[in-house]
Amino acid sequence: MFVGPHLCNLLTVYSVPDSGREQGRIVTMSNTPMAASPLTRAVLEIDEYVSGLGWDQPARLFALVDTARLRAQEPSLAAQLGLDDESETTGLTPIEQDEVPSGKPLDEFLGTIAWPDAVVGCALTVERLMLPPSAEAQVPSGLNEAGLAKWVARHPERQEVRMTVAVLRDGSRESALRLREKDTPTEVLTGPDLVPGLAEALAATFAD
């Protein structure tokens, strides 16, 4: 139940309290640097967008659409969404979805999602408390979920982290981790395998 490549059951524990939110936004951030792939750029854009809203935020779900294909196939919809700029011919556009229910475990909520064909991927941001792998051996035995969350919240090595994880229908994955104590764009860690458990849950939303 800790962030890491081998343990990542972070969908139902260590929750950070929800706060208010803005809905229905299309994420576009002009100062996000061009990245190696459209998926990496989309993840960084989402991370930057959510960071601008501050910490102690609820989980946020985004659909990823192919900007050029949407403009070609659904020009009126693209115009409605503000995606009719013909100068942009490649890339993914993240579109924030309705509010993620706070009273339902994320894995159960994600299991109810079915995406339309126009959605080529999805992304989720969520805040969690993180402990280093070395703390795993210190976990007291016999704790229930509530007791474990309290124990983690009191641990001297705990850190708050915002995880942004994205997947595409073709299996591509990307993620970004931002620590609250190192809350600058230059300290954001990216990689496809940083949060494998959450990536698997998102990929399952595209399963037939």
Summarize the structure.
This protein has helices spanning 38-51, 67-73, 75-80, 106-110, 145-154, 196-203; strands at 60-66, 92-96, 119-130, 159-168, 173-179, 189-191. The radius of gyration is 17 Å and the shape is elongated.
Provide key terms for this protein.
208 residues, alpha+beta, six-stranded antiparallel sheet, 6 helices, 6 strands, 21% strand, elongated, disordered N terminus, PPA1309-like
Kindly describe this structure.
This protein has 208 residues and is of the alpha+beta class. 24% of the residues lie in helices and 21% in strands. The chain has helices at residues 38-51, 67-73, 75-80, 106-110, 145-154, 196-203, and strands at 60-66, 92-96, 119-130, 159-168, 173-179, 189-191. It has a 6-stranded antiparallel beta sheet with strand order 2-1-3-4-5-6. The longest helix is centred in the first third of the chain and has 14 residues, at 38-51. The radius of gyration is 17 Å and the shape is elongated. The chain starts with 37 loop residues before the first helix and ends in a 5-residue tail after the last helix.
